[in-house]
Amino acid sequence: MKLRVERVHITLGHRPVLRDVTLEATPGAVVGLIGPNGSGKSTVLRTIYRSLRPQRGVVRVDGDDVWSLSARSAARRTAAVLQDAGGGPTGVCVSDVVALGRTPHHGLLGRDGADDHQAVDEALDLCGIRHMAERDVTSLSGGERQRVLLARALAQQPRLLVLDELTNHLDIRARFELLDLIRSTGITTLAVLHDLDLAARLCDQLVALHAGEVVAAGAVLDVLTPGLLRDVFGVAATASRHADGVVRITYGAQPLSLDQVPQPTVG
Amino acid sequence: MTVAISIGAVTVPLDQVWGIVWHHVSGAGAPGDPVTDQIVWNFRTPRVVLAALVGAGLAISGVVLQAVVANPLADPYVLGVSSGASLGAVLVITLTTGTLGGIGVSSAAFLGAVAAVALVFVLGQKGGRLAPTRLVLSGVAVGYLFLAATSYLQLRATPTELRTVMFWMLGSVAGAKWDQLPIVTTVVLTTTVALTLFGRQLNALLVGDESATSLGIDVHRLRAVLLVLSSLVTGTVIAVAGGIGFVGLMIPHLVRLTTGADHRRLLPQAALVGAIYLVVVDLLSRTLDRPNELPLGILTALFGAPFFLWLLRRNKSLDTI
């Protein structure tokens, strides 16, 4: 499954939030979308899972404009794990939430069949949460809840995953486990990540957004240059590949003072 | 239901009730004593059937509204339906001799409910989108507006009119007649079936608008369809039975606590439990203070609230929040 976002432009009110954003994820690739707060990362995701229609530009999933597909058929291709998805009312158990992933596979009259149960069971197993299938979702820890939401997305049997800050608020081990899990699925993934070390560890490619524009895209070390870390994130830092093959970022002792960081032009 | 038909100011033995109902439904068997027949077939039976329909309608409407506006305190009246209906009813009761240009209390109440909901829809949407918070707040505001007008009319009413108004507002199925039932039955049954078909999509609404969108649901269109259906059933029910409170708030929670939150099961079960509950409450309303009748609104809360609180304390899943 290939994702291609082509020259997408979005204005909310009079403020442009995305300016000619173009990015691509080749089949099976894990692409990280990085950028400071307010740079438009979540907005890019919204155009992909069909929540926000771009004023200009096209989002293609497997070659088809997502807005030319029905909401249901688009959702059979693309699953999302978002930040609004936590909580919910009481009386909802883990397997109920995971089963919601089957929603786009049914119309009004559809009943759950064997393939639905199989998809839910596989997702529960893959995420290691089958033992808590009957637990109430309000009783879960943060890490368990994110696993449940990922299982829901996998039960959707998507060919593209979009993830918005999946690992926020999780302890370091839970982060690594979750990211390994995503890699192991082999599904094309676009993930918004705040933690640059995690992004460097997880992703094949990175796309950096700044003030609604793509300022760099490509292999991890090509994107995480000292210049970009300074201009976009406002920190003195260097990224390098260590002997074990992992890219790590070394931050300077102090954040840069504001006059050292070019400010984005607001327009 | 048979028990509910048999008991009242005059108690009719169960076998006689069956005999009379069977006689009317199938035409077979012997017609019983004319007075008993009158009581059973013309007063009690439509009343019990109406109570069941009203209970079912309020319960499903409550389930749907709680999901649609994502608020556990929502009930069928959250969008101002009851205050609109009250204004309609009070207008007819106080300003006329019971009809207004041929419009009875029921029709006026229905029109008032429609007016209130239409107003809330217009005020609660922005750019064609119905956002839950704006919708609820618009409902509350419109509710107060209509309440102000209703209160003013009540102040000017005679004591007799005021009593009629009070009784109407607290709800009753005492005025049930056979000729009302076809419309109410059709509306309650079709909306129950239609809303149950939306069960899967209602489930998806529980995870938030953005996530529901990513599951392939047109959230704004779904919300509009569900609100129209639930308002239709609430408006119909309130027009024939007045403002019966508590059922639409409590029954959904009660059923959810016992059977879980899957709307495909929750909706039909809530309809059933709501129907049974209101039949029982109606039975109590006409037996506790025989031969006088108590309004249903008093009893639904009087018996429902303590039971609900007990259930709430017993439920462990609520401990975590």
Textual characterization of the structure:
Chain A: Residues 3-236 form the ABC transporter domain. Chain A: Keywords: ATP-binding, Nucleotide-binding, Transport. Chain A: InterPro entries: AAA+_ATPase, ABC_transporter-like_ATP-bd, ABC_transporter-like_CS, P-loop_NTPase. Chain A: This is ABC transporter ATP-binding protein. Chain A: It comes from Streptomyces palmae. The complex is a heterodimer of chains A (267) and B (321). Chain A is α/β, with parallel strands linked by helices and 267 residues long. Chain A has one domain (3-260): Rossmann fold. Helix content of chain A is 30%, strand content 29%. The radius of gyration of chain A is 19 Å and the shape is globular. Chain B is mainly alpha-helical and 321 residues long. Chain B has one domain (47-315): ABC transporter involved in vitamin B12 uptake, BtuC. In chain B, strands 1-2 form a two-stranded antiparallel ribbon. The longest helix of chain B has 35 residues, at 34-68.
What strand order characterises the main sheet of chain A? Answer: 6-7-8-3-9-10
pLDDT < 50 runs, ≥5 residues of chain B: none
Name the overall outline of chain B.
Answer: globular
For this entry, what is the oligomeric state of its chains? heterodimer
Q: How many individual helices of chain B?
A: 14
Which fold name is given in CATH as the topology of chain B? ABC transporter involved in vitamin B12 uptake, BtuC
Output the radius of gyration of chain B. 20 Å
Can you tell me the CATH superfamily of chain B?
Answer: ABC transporter involved in vitamin B12 uptake, BtuC
**CA distance, first residue to last residue of chain A:** 35 Å
Q: What is the highest CATH level, the class of chain B? A: Mainly Alpha
Examine the coordinates and then state which fold CATH places here, giving the name of the CATH topology of chain A.
Rossmann fold
How confident overall, as mean pLDDT of chain B?
A: 84
Beta-strand proportion of chain B = under 5%
Structural class of chain A: alpha/beta
Q: For the terminal residues of chain B, how far apart are their CA atoms?
A: 39 Å
Secondary structure: helix percent of chain A: 25-40%
Report the average pLDDT across residues of chain A. Answer: 89
In CATH, the homologous superfamily of chain A goes by the name P-loop containing nucleotide triphosphate hydrolases
* Major β-sheet profile of chain B: 2 strands, antiparallel
